[in-house]
């Protein structure tokens, strides 16, 4: 007997790509369970699927930075600055990134690449360990939202958030609607999607000097004049990141979707685009609207 739940959850995360750098992503999760009926004539109660399995998935990968541990571009070591924190040194073809975060902010995937196959295998093994014995099979389908139009991948962190959004390197795959006089303007949408293609969005208020950043010894010896430094302390711990200028956009606000929508709208007005409405999405099916 099989039981399915489509659109069980959406995982918003970032991952280290040897070619593209740190990439924000959003995947929809579908679940198919295979097993014998239990004493309630069910494979598994829908309430358990929706609550327990979703919670396992969220804890494993949601709002984390996914690390391909078999790839030589990644080095992970224990922090010498903060207890229960780790350094991540990541050198991609596009840029180099250096981080310190609490260990819970990283998901270590035993693979040389982060893709649907490797993440599906990682999650399947974790979930099966926690399901009842009558559940004999599990099929996860991870899929991006079907977007007709332009979209961008971005990574950020929200220091004022008391949940997992505080993690300094989690991200989203998002679309944007920009309207003038009630009509979408494809050229403006495309321009912003190009600007924020595989970008790290940082808040200027979180900028720190090089002397105040906490990174590995390797990172300290390999930082360049192109790196910018951001750090903050949130409920889960201290977060630090060094990002090269070419993969960075620094905004004059926090990077909540509400303020990003307002930031884009203000930028468009400053560029003499007239009155605009910006519908900015944060991942799948949620976002904010700003008018300027």
Automatic annotation (TrEMBL):
Catalytic activity: 7,8-dihydroneopterin 3'-triphosphate + H2O = 6-carboxy-5,6,7,8-tetrahydropterin + triphosphate + acetaldehyde + 2 H(+)
InterPro entries referenced in this protein's UniProt entry, alphabetically: 6-PTP_synth/QueD (IPR007115), 6-PTP_synth/QueD_sf (IPR038418)
Pfam families for this protein: PTPS
EC supergroup of this enzyme: lyase
SUPFAM superfamilies per the UniProt record, alphabetical: Tetrahydrobiopterin biosynthesis enzymes-like (SSF55620)
Pathway terms, separated by semicolons: Purine metabolism; 7-cyano-7-deazaguanine biosynthesis
GO molecular function, one term: 6-carboxytetrahydropterin synthase activity
EC number(s) stated in the UniProt entry for this protein: 4.1.2.50
Family classification: Belongs to the PTPS family. QueD subfamily.
Entry protein name: 6-carboxy-5,6,7,8-tetrahydropterin synthase
Source organism: Colwellia hornerae
């Amino acid at each position: 007997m099989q039981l399915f739940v489509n659109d069980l959850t959406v995982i918003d995360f970032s991952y280290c790509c040897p070619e593209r750098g740190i990439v924000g992503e959003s995947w929809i999760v579908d679940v198919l369970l295979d097993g014998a009926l239990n004493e309630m004539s069910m494979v598994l109660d829908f309430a358990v699927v929706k609550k327990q399995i979703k919670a396992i998935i969220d804890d494993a990968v949601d709002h984390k930075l996914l690390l391909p541990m078999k790839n030589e571009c990644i080095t992970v070591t224990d922090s010498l600055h903060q207890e229960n924190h780790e350094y991540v040194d990541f050198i991609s073809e596009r840029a180099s990134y250096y981080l310190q975060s609490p260990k819970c902010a990283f998901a270590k995937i035993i693979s040389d690449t982060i893709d649907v196959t490797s993440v599906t295998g990682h999650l399947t093994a974790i979930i099966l360990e926690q399901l009842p014995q009558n559940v004999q099979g599990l099929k996860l389908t991870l899929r991006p939202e079907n977007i007709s139009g332009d979209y961008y991948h971005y990574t950020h962190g929200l220091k004022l958030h008391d949940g997992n959004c505080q993690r300094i390197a989690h991200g989203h795959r998002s679309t944007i609607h920009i309207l003038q006089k009630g009509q979408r303007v494809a050229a403006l949408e495309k321009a912003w999607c190009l600007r924020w293609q595989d970008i790290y969005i940082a808040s200027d208020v979180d900028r720190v000097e090089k002397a105040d950043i906490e990174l590995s010894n390797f990172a300290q010896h390999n930082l360049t004049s192109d790196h910018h430094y951001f750090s903050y302390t949130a409920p889960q711990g201290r977060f630090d990141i060094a990002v090269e200028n070419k993969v960075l956009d620094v905004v004059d606000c926090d990077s909540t979707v509400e303020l990003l929508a307002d930031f884009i709208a203000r930028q468009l007005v400053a560029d003499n685009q007239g009155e605009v409405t910006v519908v900015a999405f944060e991942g799948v099916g949620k976002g904010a609207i700003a008018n300027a």
